């Protein structure tokens, strides 16, 4: 590939990323301003309310500032949505976690344990909204 094509691809990826971040934060800002459906109406089958919860979760995923994440978490909690996390070294739990990658280990005792948290999961009274995304250790021998 020529340097020009590589440059165009890099600029395109950056532009798409910036656009996605801006869109998620705009949705979050509009939700706080009351121009979107309130996430407190998150009930099973309430499509627009469920969409607002999904928008808040997307905003959480792209928020850089910890204060923003704290506010979004509080907004989700007000809607009855709680965060699901995973701790490195705990046993992988397929009922709340999804393995998105594996990491090799030579320690047989680590096999099947959480190696890394990628994204928190979320649940409400109706069940899992998004599974916690983790990497899991897999024993490869010595």
UniProtKB/TrEMBL annotation:
Q: What keywords is this UniProt entry annotated with?
A: Chaperone, Membrane, Transmembrane, Transmembrane helix
MF (Gene Ontology): adenyl-nucleotide exchange factor activity; protein homodimerization activity; protein-folding chaperone binding
Which residue ranges does UniProt annotate as crossing the membrane?
Answer: 6-28
Signal peptide range = none
Q: What is this protein called?
A: GrpE protein
Any Pfam family from its record, for instance, is GrpE
Key word Amino-acid biosynthesis present: no
Q: Which residues form a coiled coil?
A: none
Note the InterPro entries from the entry: GrpE (IPR000740), GrpE_head (IPR009012)
Example GO biological process term? protein folding
